[in-house]
Amino acid sequence: MPDRQSPVSDRTSQPQAAPEAEGFVTLAKSESLADGGIRTARLLSRALQQDPHHHEAQVLRERLHQTFVPRWHFPMLADTARNRAYAEAIAAKVRPGDIVLDIGCGAGLTAMLAARAGAKHVYTCEQQPLIAEAARRVIADNGLADRVTVISKWSHDIVIGEDMPEPADVVISEIVDTVLLGEGALATLAHAMAALAKPGARAVPEHGTLRARLVQCDGLMNQWRPAQAEGFDLSAFHQFARVAQITPGDFAASGMRAIGPDCDLFRFDFTRPTIDPGRITRELVCDLGGTLQAVLVSFEMQLAAGIAVDNGLTSDGHWGRTAFLLDQPRQALPGDRVTVTAQHDAANLSLSVHPEIANAQSTAMRMNHAWLTRQPHPTPAAPEAPVWLPSGETVTPPVQPYH
User: Fold this and answer.
1) How far apart are alpha carbons 199 and 183 in whole angstroms?
2) Collapsed DSSP state (helix, strand, coil) of residue 151
3) Sheet holding 278-285, edge to edge
4) How far apart are CA 105 and CA 112, in angstroms?
């Protein structure tokens, strides 16, 4: 009986790879990646030109791309709200004749937005060679190769007079992570504004604020700290899940709800950035009852006057979130207060939750008890603040007896 199965559906058939393709794959596997994968990518492309179905060449190319091109680039480019905000801010900041420095080229979108806004020339830097090469093609495809130059360097290595003819009038960047700090934004911008920009240069974004709030998040706790599996207690493993880096998909499934308002932690000025460390202790307030399970840290960046982006609780943008999980969930009532200490070294953020909760009801009871049992002759009140007279002299009001 003749074989009725077509070669296309024969899963056991192993077509012979073209010898030329095999040779290019062999060379690609022996190539150093010290150049950021450029030569390896070209060899794999030549292999696939010879044999578009070459299995190993396809696998190696995908592995190369995943190694050198972070996956967050794609949802970022698809974030229409973010793109629109940057387009409006860049149009508001860039003036005809400006020299623009765009830090972190990516696909070249913000650089092209600056050129569209009227910049005389845009210099955009990208340290990853594969990304820089692709950005040049994107920019050329959009007819802007004569107005946008891609510099395959880290911004710290740019030299005025060699890579750029003069310092920038405007510095554009989008090099922040979920808490603004993790991509080295402050150090990069501090160098750029001091060494690569003119005095008084404009910046997009202008500043960013980190905020914290108390949240209940049953779904997130189930994802990051499952209490048991198949009847076995897993709690001793929870020590490894103290800081949850939450993808947008996981965030949507986390069931997170606020049980308190946002509280500002740190504010970073991107027009005059510094790398000074910071430490602050704040009281976070519960305005709803619930199970306190984590402290959500989010940011808001002002790109230009009246134009901002954020990754807060109600944002649906591409940014993930960072949540600091409590060691033990706590029941909270409206009016309860939780003290946290946040610290940063200009590159990393830490946050610790103090063990005690200031319970609104017990605090009120203690205050009432102190009022009812006060002594008839308490310690006199502290002097009031000095009063400054027009002459420059001061007068301290006399202490009034307590009645």
Assistant:
1) 25
2) strand
3) 278-285, 337-344, 349-358
4) 10
Please name which of 301, 286, 288 lies closest in space to residue 340, comparing C-alpha atoms.
Answer: 286
**Residue 190, token pair as written in the block:** 């501090």
Instruction: Say what angle helices 109-116 and 129-141 make with each other, to 10 degrees.
Output: 40
CA distances (Å), origin 85, targets 90, 211, 302:
9, 21, 10
Q: Is 73 helix (H, G, I), strand (E, B) or coil?
A: helix
Tally of residues, the chain: 403
- Report the C-alpha gap between 7 and 20 in whole angstroms: 23
Query: CA 270, CA 202: separation in Å to the nearest integer?
Result: 10
Supply angle C-alpha 327, 184, 178, rounded to 5.
45
355-368 residue pLDDT tens = 888 776 554 444 44
Cα–Cα nearest to 298, from 325, 341, 266, 328: 266
Do the beta carbons of residue 214 and residue 286 sit within 8 Å? yes
Between CA 270 and CA 174 the distance in angstroms is 11
At CA 171, angle to CA 143 and CA 150, rounded to 5?
Answer: 40
Q: Rounded to whole angstroms, what are the CA distances from 221 to 262, 293, 332?
A: 21, 8, 17
Rounded to the nearest angstrom, the gap between the alpha carbon of residue 225 and the centroid of all alpha carbons in its chain is 24
For residue 11, the one-letter residue type is R
Query: Which tokens belong to 20?
Result: 């030329």
Alpha-carbon span 313 to 50, nearest angstrom: 50
Q: Is 228 left (phi over 0), alpha (psi -120 to 50) or beta?
A: beta
Tracing tokens 């062999």 back to the chain, one arrives at 26
Query: Residue 138, SS3?
Result: helix
The tens digit of pLDDT for each residue in 7-44 reads 444 444 555 557 899 999 999 999 999 999 999 999 99
Among 66, 72, 100, residue whose Cα is nearest residue 196: 100
CA torsion through residues 192, 183, 79, 213, sign: negative
Return phi, psi of residue 300, to 5°: -130, 130
- Helices of type H across 108-154: 109-116, 129-141
Residue 51 to residue 59: CA distance in whole angstroms: 13
Question: What stretches in the chain show pLDDT beneath 50?
Answer: 1-2, 4-12, 363-403
